[in-house]
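Appendix C reproduces, verbatim, an entry submitted by the partner laboratory led by Prof. M.T., so that reviewers can inspect both the input and the predicted structure.
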Amino acid sequence: MTVVVHRGAVEAVKGFAHAAYPEEACGFLIGTWAPRNVEEARGMKNLAAGSDDLRYEIDPKETILVGSELRGTGRDIVGVFHSHPDLSARPSPQDLERAWEGYTYLIVAVDKGRPVDLRAWSLDEGGKTRAFQEVEIELV
């Protein structure tokens, strides 16, 4: 599977990750489902900032507001992005527990405040176990 991601969305994700460091940045990927196209990355407040239990949590009220704003526009929330401060851009066990099938997940690794790697993932529940599969990113 390949996901098309606009360069502006990638730069926005990196910017949010840099600004949030040493906390995790988080937000929505906005675009179209078919074909899978991420046009925009919209940062959201991380309700779990400073928490030892959760690394990121998006306010459900913001989710409803963004969904309402996009209704009828031909665009939708097609995924979520978040950063991994001083960790790899690979999903954590907590990421796996909280993932939704069908969404694209962009994870950006941030090393000492500097974004160094960005990868895309999707949840694959077709096998015997729940697992992430890495997705190729086509930048446009």
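The domain at 2-139 is CATH 3.40.140.10 (Cytidine Deaminase; domain 2). Additional entries are available on request from the coordinating office.
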